[in-house]
């Protein structure tokens, strides 16, 4: 039986800081992560080729027959069917980028090693290869995932206290609820996950997804495409944002063209700029090149790694990258690149010592009835060590 493996394929550094704590395939790109999407489309379990320090948590399994898939691919039914039908010793590619390779136990870890024959895929393939691709491709991923998740299911009824505008559907999973809010589906569908809640007075433009057990606070203003992962609380104004899950932006403030990791908390009235005053293209910190690089985007906001926090009234400038487990506070704009395990703000930073950071992580997880396990401690310890090169204070 063919086994499917999702490979970071050299993308790990490109996707930092989001990939510090997970394989590339585990990053949410729509309603689902790329890994979740492949599992559903292929109706099978998968494993991962990723960095060594992540491999204990995200296992790698090699069978007699393996199909190695580029972890950045946002798959759809057509592509999944093409990948499933591959013969041994062949691959699928789109243009110059390989989507999947089918080989025996000598699996491919570097997609520059090409077997034959090559199948040039005739459909659209979208690759999320940088953090800003995540919000840039969110609309495409949301629409794909919406169709996957609602197939063969019937939506729960939406309360008559709500107003619905537009031609696309609103799908309500079991236990989800919404009252006295406006759902505009003119530009795309709206999905409310299991036991999610939209409080009164929210205004939502699709495409939009609210994950399982997540809450949209009263009076929120949402511009799609936006996806809120599970177990999150969100309020204020959001425009084209992906929150991976387990994070809170529960109060007023603007967040646009941004990606927020897990276990993050944005204090009341946190705002980010997503457009430069001179309308110039935005530069973003690139870990692979160790410098700021031009994104080619006019709109680009905040990229924040897991476990990072910011205090009330925090202001993030256009194109800011925050690493893992940073704690940001104070007035003024902090720098545009904040390394992992940083403590401070515009007035300066110092190292957020590992024992103190882990103590906070454990407290936050305990509030949700979860425990910081030894495996995750090891991962955070490794991130602390390998990110030290960026902390000059």
Indicate the percent of residues in helices. 10-25%
Strand content: 25-35%
Q: What is the count of DSSP helices, taking H or I runs of 4+ residues?
A: 7
CATH architecture of the largest domain: 3 Solenoid
Q: Please state the structural category.
A: alpha/beta
Overall CATH class of the largest domain: Mainly Beta
Instruction: Based on Cα principal axes, name the global outline.
Output: globular
Poorly predicted sequence stretches spanning 5 or more consecutive residues: none
The CATH superfamily of the largest domain is known as Hexapeptide repeat proteins
How would you state the average pLDDT, rounded?
A: 94
CATH topology of the largest domain: UDP N-Acetylglucosamine Acyltransferase, domain 1
**Oligomeric category:** single chain
Tally of separate domains:
2
Output the radius of gyration: 21 Å
How many individual β-strands? 35
Your description of this structure?
- The chain has 393 residues and is α/β, with parallel strands linked by helices.
- The chain folds into two domains: 127 residues, Spore Coat Polysaccharide Biosynthesis Protein SpsA, Chain A; 192 residues, 3 Solenoid (UDP N-Acetylglucosamine Acyltransferase, domain 1), CATH 2.160.10.
- It is 17% helix and 31% strand.
- The protein has seven helices and 35 strands.
- The strands form seven sheets. Strands 9, 10, 12, 13, 15, 16, 18, 19, 21, 23, 28, 31 and 33 form a 13-stranded parallel β-sheet that branches. The chain has a six-stranded mixed β-sheet with strand order 2-1-3-6-5-7, with helices on one face.
- Strand 26 and strand 27 form a beta hairpin.
- The longest helix has 14 residues.
- It starts with a strand and ends in a 7-residue tail after the last helix.
- The model has no long low-confidence stretch (mean pLDDT 94).
